[in-house]
Write a structure and sequence with these properties.
This protein is an alpha+beta fold. The protein contains 15 helices and 15 strands.
Length: 468
């Protein structure tokens, strides 16, 4: 519920788009659409950003959104990009109630992307209320400025929200939203069939086929910004098999991506050679499609002194996506890379991944908003929240592009970084995931696909129920 704790993944935005509002955020018509801010102006030297807060924007308690709230929300943000934002922002000024000015220490062309989309720093909470109830009180009864107001929350069961009649953009058509926690996909599909829910997220494999063939239900696939891949955190250890690029490339060649795609997402996922930057992101570089060649994989292992393969230890993955891991582990074993599937509960997996606690193989799934630079910062360069090591030339190129205001020169640098990532097999790409979602017969506008690459229904205020 709290944007200050946004962890660098996309899942929290499922709730943020309902409960909160951002100064700028991805919307159907624009990747960086003004929202609580009616306008944003950058200085010619790239060091100053001026925001004008939208007149009439209010929190759910009726208090107006002010510059004080914007500064407070930025100052209290402590998510994954906290250090980066604090290092680059010199000062936040509040000339009056509707004006906010960010002064940067140096030009930073990605300021808006990091502030407004890749983190929770630009999603605004009410200073007065948070200070009155405290951090824990805010978590129990959050107040935001979004299209829906908090009603109740039963952990592990459901979140209930009701429409805010004073939301600036429009009054939501659906008066009450209930987010039900149904981890099991079979149970999720059964609830959709029974009319107990109207929308079911992420139904995969045979269940997706059943969804497609069920009268009255609609299947809605959406290729999202989740770039699934294998990460080799031991590649910087010269005693590890993964230190040899031939071994990493062998692992990539072992993956039968077409079969995995057909089996789990009915072929709707996008098999791409770019492991961490999805198609549709700014500065995306398109590499050649990844190969499937198990014989070549075995030859590379033999060349690397691993004829007959080797014991690769744990294959660490988010338990929510262990079905991908099961097939990948079988693919790897087929060429001699013997590993053990280790599914980990989602919150623990993300926490331990960022704390650099894993070895051997990690099934990663970068999914946050942003652009190529934000993904590279988090997953490829020194100090990145999910980066276990780095290469000096890539670090240097990243720093060059971070201050480059000429778009064409910056694009060339970011393309080069992605090219080096592919050439060195720092990651082995799997796919750009497609969510297979189910829609019940009552739904008019589901919201799926309206915000490009966003996996969930949004904007929530645009969702409709037939006949209402």
């Amino acid at each position: 519920f709290d944007p200050a704790e946004a962890s660098g993944i996309i899942t929290p935005f499922l709730v943020f788009y309902a409960l909160h509002d951002g100064m700028v955020k991805p919307m159907p018509d624009k990747a960086l659409a003004p929202s609580l801010a009616e306008s944003v102006t950058a200085s010619e030297d790239g060091r100053t950003y001026d925001f004008v807060i939208r007149e009439g924007a209010v929190f759910h308690n009726g208090e107006p959104v002010t510059s004080t709230d914007v500064k407070f929300s930025f100052d209290r943000y402590r998510g994954v990009a906290h250090d980066l934002l604090q290092a680059r922002v010199a000062e936040v000024e509040t000339p009056d109630a509707r004006h906010v000015r960010f002064r940067l220490k140096q030009p930073w062309p990605d300021f808006l992307t990091f502030y407004a989309t890749a983190t929770g720093a630009g999603w605004i909470v009410p200073k007065k209320y948070v200070e009155e109830v405290g951090q824990e009180g805010f978590k129990k009864a959050p107040i935001g400025a979004g299209p829906y107001k908090f009603v109740s929350f039963k952990p592990g069961v459901e979140l209930v929200l009701e429409a805010s009649e004073r939301y600036w953009r429009k009054k939501p058509a659906v008066k009450r939203l209930v987010f039900k926690v149904i981890p099991d996909e079979t149970t999720r599909l059964a609830a959709l069939k029974a009319g107990e829910i109207d929308i079911a997220y992420s139904v995969r494999g045979e269940l997706a086929e059943k969804l497609r063939s069920t009268p009255g239900l609609a299947l809605k696939p959406a290729v999202i910004q989740g770039s699934f891949c294998l990460y080799f955190p031991d590649q910087w250890d010269d005693k590890s098999p993964w230190h040899d690029e031939r071994v990493r490339r062998a692992a990539s060649l072992a993956l039968d991506r077409k079969n995995i795609n057909e089996a789990l997402t009915l072929g709707f996922s996008d098999v791409t050679g770019n492991a961490i930057v999805p198609k549709g992101f700014d500065f995306y570089w398109q590499p050649p499609p990844p190969e499937f060649d198990p014989d070549k994989a075995k030859r590379l292992l033999a060349e690397a002194g691993r004829r007959g393969g080797f014991d690769a230890g744990d294959y660490n993955c988010d338990a929510s996506y262990s079905n991908i891991g099961e097939t990948v582990v079988d693919n790897l074993r087929a060429v001699g890379i013997r590993c053990r599937l280790r599914p980990i509960e989602r919150a623990a997996f993300i926490k331990e991944f960022s704390e650099k606690k894993y070895k051997n193989i990690i099934q990663a799934g970068p999914g946050a908003f942003g652009n190529a630079a934000t993904r590279i910062e988090a997953h490829l360069v020194k100090g990145g929240v999910f980066s276990y090591g780095s290469y000096p030339d890539i670090d240097e190129l990243y720093q060059q592009q971070a201050g480059e205001l000429d778009r064409s020169r910056r694009e060339a640098i970011l393309f080069k970084i992605q090219q080096l990532m592919v050439e060195r097999t720092i990651y082995a790409p799997i796919w750009q995931l497609a969510f297979i979602n189910g829609i019940g017969p009552r739904v008019g506008e589901s919201g799926f696909g309206r915000i490009p690459l966003f996996p969930y229904t949004a904007p929530y205020e645009d969702i409709t129920i037939k006949g209402t």
